[in-house]
C-alpha cells in the first residue's frame, strides 16, 4: 500500500460538442512525501486538470487517485470533500479568495468548514506570511502578492499534508512572484509538507526537488 | 456561529455592491407579502367580529321557539333560567306590522320584550342614543335609521296595524257578505304608541326595520294572550363552539316541539357570505405569498449565479454539498425572518393608524374609503389575532425556504472545476 497521495493510469477526456479532447492519457505519479515536485508544461497541456484530479476536485475518466492506498473517487462525495478539507491545501493562480470575507476570515474558512474554528491560528498564519497588519482587509484592498500570501496561509490552515499550487506566480509580476514562491517554499520546508507545483515558469520550476513535464497527456521526468 | 449561517449572512448582506440592494428589495417584497395579509385579514376579522357582536346583542346567543306560538312557556323558562350555562332569558313576541307616521307607511317588525326586569338576555340600555329604554305603557323604541328616514323624534306618536286588525277587517267583510244587517261591525282603529327612545344597534338592517315595545303590547297586537313567539337566551360563554354545544344540549333537554337555534344558525346566510369572502381573500393572500416566494427564488438564483466561483472555491476548501445547500436555504430563511418581522410590525402600525389615515384621506381628498352609510360603522374595525400573525409568518417562512431550495440545490450540485473557471 502506497503512503500518502498517488495517481495511477489517469486519463481525462472532455467532450466539447462533437469533439472529444484528451487531456491526460495515462498519468502515473506518486509525489515524494515532504518534497517539492514541480510539473512543467505548456499552456493548455493539462497541468491544472492534473492538479484538480489529484486534489479530488475532478473525477478522472479512467485511473485511480489513492490516499494511503484507498481510491478517493470511490468515496461518497461528502467523504471526498472532508478529505479535501483536512488533507489538501490549494493555491490557485487567480488567488480565489472569497471577496466578501476579510483576509482573516478567508484563512479561517477551512477550519470553519471542519467545525474547529480557532481564529488565533489563522492570525498566526497571516503573521507568518507577513500580513499580520492586514488581517481585516478585504481581498480588494490587498495587492496581488498579498492576496496570494493570504491564499497560502489559507491552504495551510487545517495543516494538510499535501499542498497543490496551480501557477502560484502566474498573475504576479516577477519580483512579487519570487517573494510569493519563497514564502510558499519556506512554509513547505518549515511544516514538512508535500508540495506539488504546476508552472510554465522555468525559474519556479528550477526550485523543485523533483521536476516532471506534462506533454501529450503524459508525465515524464525532466533531466 | 456556524459557517453556513456566517456565509449566508455575508452573501445576503454583503459589505458593498448591488447584491445588498437586491436583498433589501427582496425583504421589502416579503414585508409587503406579510403585512398585506395580516392587515386585510385583521380588518375582515374585526368586521366579522363586530357584526357578530351586534347580531348577538340584538338576538342573544340562542333562540328557543316552536315554529308557532308557545302558550305554556313556564316550564321551558324555568329550565332555561336554572341552566348553569345560561345567564339571561328573555321571552319575546315578534312579527311584521304596518306603521303609519305623519302620513307615511312603513312595514317594520315589532319585537315585544318584557319591561319589568324579565328581560335579561337583550341589553337595550347600551344601545340607546336618545330618550329612555322604558317600555311601560303604550310606548315603543325605534331604530336610529327608521327615525332618521321618517324624521321621527322622541315624543312623537305612531299608529300600528297588526294581524289582529286584519282579523277584525276580515270579520267585518264576512258580516257584510252575509247580508245580515244586524251583525255587529267593529271599528278598526290602529294602536297608538309614543316613541320614548331611539336605539342604535350598529346594524342598518335592524335600525331600519325593528321597533321595540313591551311584551304585553306585542302580545296584544298579535292576539297572543299569554303566548310567545320565542325565548332569547344569553350564555355565559360567547365562544361560537361553546354556543353550538350548549344549543345541541338544550335541544336534547327541551320538550318537543320546542327547539333551540344558535345565532349562527339564524344568520347562516350572512356569515356564510362572510366566510366565502374570507376564502376569496385567503386565495388572494396565498397569491401574494407566492409572489413573495418567487421574489426570494429570483433573488437567490441571482445570488447563486453571482457566487458561482465562490461555490467552486468553497468546494475546493472542503465544503460539502450539504454546506452549500444550507448556505443558500438559510438565505431564504433569513429573508423570510427579517421580512416577516418587519411585515408584522408594519401591519400592526398600519392597523393602529388605519382610522387616522382614513380621516386624513377624507380631509385631504374628499374621499371616504369606508363610508359609515354603507357599512353602518363609524370606524374601520380590526381584530389582530395572534394566530393570524403566526399562520402568515409560518406560511411566509415556509414559502421562502421552499423557494430558496431550488437555487440552493442547484448551487450544491455545481461542479467545482467548472465553477472555478467561471468568470
Structure, explained:
Chain A has 223 residues and is of the alpha/beta class. In chain A, 34% of the residues lie in helices and 27% in strands. Chain A is built from seven helices and ten strands. Chain A has helices spanning 47-54, 77-87, 103-113, 119-128, 144-156, 174-191, 202-205, and strands at 5-16, 19-29, 36-40, 62-67, 70-71, 88-91, 162-166, 194-199, 210-215, 218-221. In chain A, the strands form two sheets. A six-stranded mixed β-sheet of chain A has the order 6-7-8-3-9-10. In chain A, strands 2-1-4-5 form a four-stranded antiparallel β-sheet, with helices on one face. In chain A, α6 (174-191) links the parallel β7 and β8. In chain A, α4 (119-128) crosses α5. The longest helix of chain A has 18 residues, at 174-191. With 423 residues, chain B is α+β, with helices and mostly antiparallel strands. Chain B has two domains: 3-53 and 271-419, no CATH class; 61-266, no CATH class. Helices cover 57% and strands 15% of the residues of chain B. Chain B has helices at residues 3-12, 19-59, 74-81, 144-150, 163-178, 204-209, 215-221, 240-253, 263-266, 268-306, 308-316, 321-352, 354-365, 372-375, 386-412, 416-421, and strands spanning 62-65, 86-96, 98-101, 104-106, 109-113, 128-131, 139-143, 157-161, 191-199, 210-214, 230-235, 259-262. In chain B, strands 1, 2, 3, 4, 5, 6, 7, 8, 9, 10, 11 and 12 form a twelve-stranded mixed β-sheet that branches. In chain B, α2 packs antiparallel against α15 (386-412), α10 crosses α12 (321-352) and α12 (321-352) packs antiparallel against α15 (386-412). The mean pLDDT of chain B is 83. Classes of the chains: A alpha/beta (223), B alpha+beta (423). Chains A and B meet through α2 and α3 of A and α1, α11, α12 and α16 of B.
The helix content of chain A is: 25-40%
Structural class of chain B: alpha+beta
Q: What are the segments of chain A in which pLDDT stays under 50 over at least 5 consecutive residues?
A: none
Instruction: Label the structural class of chain A.
Output: alpha/beta
Q: Largest sheet of chain A, described in full?
A: 6 strands, mixed
**N-to-C order of helices and strands of chain A:** EEEHEEHEHHHEHEHEE
The chain-level mean pLDDT of chain B equals 83
Whole-angstrom Rg of chain A: 17 Å
Q: Please indicate the count of domains of chain B.
A: 2
The coarse silhouette of chain B is elongated
Q: Radius of gyration of chain B, rounded?
A: 33 Å
The most extensive interface between chains reads: A-B, 30 and 23 residues
What does the largest sheet of chain B look like? 12 strands, mixed
Binned strand content of chain B:
15-25%
Weakly predicted, low-confidence segments of chain B:
none
The N- and C-terminal alpha carbons of chain B lie at a distance of: 30 Å
Q: What is the oligomeric state here?
A: heterodimer
Assign a percent range to the helix content of chain B. Answer: 55-70%
Give the beta-strand count of chain A.
Answer: 10
Q: Give me the side-by-side strand order of the main sheet of chain A.
A: 6-7-8-3-9-10
Amino acid at each position: 500500500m502506497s503512503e500518502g497521495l498517488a495517481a495511477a493510469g489517469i486519463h481525462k477526456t472532455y467532450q466539447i460538442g462533437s469533439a472529444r479532447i484528451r487531456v491526460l492519457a495515462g498519468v502515473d505519479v506518486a509525489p515524494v512525501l515532504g518534497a517539492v515536485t514541480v510539473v512543467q508544461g505548456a499552456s493548455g497541456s493539462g497541468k491544472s486538470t492534473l492538479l484538480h484530479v489529484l486534489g479530488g476536485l475532478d473525477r478522472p475518466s479512467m485511473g485511480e487517485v489513492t490516499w494511503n492506498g484507498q481510491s478517493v473517487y470511490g468515496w461518497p462525495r461528502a467523504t471526498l470533500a472532508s478529505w479535501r478539507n483536512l488533507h489538501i491545501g490549494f493555491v490557485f493562480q487567480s488567488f480565489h479568495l472569497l471577496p466578501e470575507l476579510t483576509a482573516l476570515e478567508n484563512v479561517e474558512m477551512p477550519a470553519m468548514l471542519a467545525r474547529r474554528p480557532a481564529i488565533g491560528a489563522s492570525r498566526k498564519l497571516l503573521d507568518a506570511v507577513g500580513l499580520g497588519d492586514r488581517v481585516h482587509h478585504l481581498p480588494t484592498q490587498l495587492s496581488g502578492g498579498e492576496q496570494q500570501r493570504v491564499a497560502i496561509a489559507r491552504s495551510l490552515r487545517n495543516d494538510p499534508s499535501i499542498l497543490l499550487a496551480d501557477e502560484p506566480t502566474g498573475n504576479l509580476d516577477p519580483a512579487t512572484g519570487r517573494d510569493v514562491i519563497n514564502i510558499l517554499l519556506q512554509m513547505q520546508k518549515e511544516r514538512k509538507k508535500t508540495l506539488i507545483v504546476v508552472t510554465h515558469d522555468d525559474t519556479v520550476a528550477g526550485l523543485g526537488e523533483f521536476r516532471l513535464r506534462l506533454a501529450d497527456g503524459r508525465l515524464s521526468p525532466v533531466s | 456561529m456556524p459557517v453556513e449561517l456566517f456565509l449566508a449572512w455575508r452573501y445576503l448582506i454583503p459589505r458593498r455592491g448591488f447584491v445588498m440592494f437586491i436583498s433589501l428589495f427582496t425583504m421589502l417584497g416579503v414585508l409587503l407579502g406579510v403585512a398585506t395579509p395580516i392587515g386585510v385579514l385583521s380588518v375582515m376579522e374585526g368586521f366579522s367580529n363586530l357584526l357578530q357582536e351586534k347580531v348577538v346583542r340584538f338576538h342573544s346567543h340562542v333562540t328557543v321557539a316552536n315554529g308557532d306560538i308557545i302558550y305554556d312557556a313556564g316550564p321551558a323558562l324555568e329550565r332555561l333560567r336554572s341552566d348553569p350555562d345560561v345567564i339571561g332569558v328573555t321571552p319575546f313576541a315578534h312579527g311584521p306590522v304596518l306603521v303609519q307616521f305623519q302620513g307615511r307607511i312603513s312595514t317594520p317588525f315589532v319585537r315585544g320584550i318584557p319591561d319589568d326586569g324579565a328581560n335579561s338576555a337583550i341589553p337595550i340600555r347600551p344601545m340607546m342614543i336618545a330618550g329612555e329604554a322604558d317600555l311601560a305603557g303604550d310606548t315603543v323604541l325605534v331604530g336610529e335609521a327608521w327615525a332618521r328616514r321618517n324624521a321621527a323624534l322622541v315624543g312623537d306618536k305612531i299608529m300600528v296595524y297588526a294581524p289582529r286588525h286584519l282579523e277584525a277587517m276580515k270579520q267585518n267583510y264576512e258580516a257584510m257578505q252575509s247580508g245580515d244587517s244586524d251583525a255587529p261591525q267593529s271599528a278598526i282603529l290602529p294602536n297608538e304608541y309614543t316613541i320614548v327612545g331611539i336605539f342604535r344597534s350598529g346594524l342598518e338592517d335592524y335600525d331600519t326595520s325593528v321597533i321595540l315595545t313591551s311584551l304585553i303590547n306585542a302580545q296584544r297586537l298579535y292576539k297572543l294572550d299569554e303566548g310567545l313567539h320565542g325565548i332569547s337566551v344569553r350564555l355565559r360563554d360567547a365562544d361560537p363552539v361553546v354556543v353550538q354545544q350548549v344549543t345541541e344540549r338544550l335541544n336534547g333537554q327541551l320538550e318537543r316541539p320546542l327547539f333551540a337555534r344558535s345565532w349562527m344558525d339564524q344568520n347562516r346566510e350572512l356569515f356564510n357570505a362572510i366566510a366565502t369572502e374570507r376564502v376569496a381573500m385567503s386565495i388572494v393572500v396565498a397569491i401574494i405569498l407566492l409572489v413573495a416566494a418567487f421574489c426570494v427564488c429570483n433573488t437567490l438564483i441571482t445570488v447563486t449565479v453571482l457566487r458561482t466561483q465562490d461555490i467552486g472555491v468553497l468546494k475546493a476548501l472542503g465544503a460539502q454539498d450539504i454546506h452549500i445547500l444550507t448556505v443558500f436555504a438559510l438565505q431564504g430563511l433569513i429573508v423570510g425572518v427579517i421580512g416577516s418581522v418587519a411585515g408584522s410590525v408594519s401591519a400592526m402600525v398600519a392597523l393602529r393608524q388605519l382610522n387616522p389615515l382614513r380621516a386624513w384621506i377624507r380631509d385631504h381628498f374628499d374621499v371616504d374609503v369606508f363610508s359609515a352609510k354603507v357599512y353602518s360603522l363609524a370606524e374601520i374595525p380590526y381584530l389582530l389575532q395572534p394566530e393570524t400573525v403566526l399562520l402568515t409568518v409560518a406560511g411566509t417562512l415556509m414559502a421562502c425556504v421552499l423557494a430558496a431550495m431550488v437555487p440552493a440545490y442547484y448551487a450544491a450540485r455545481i461542479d467545482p472545476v467548472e465553477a472555478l473557471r467561471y468568470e
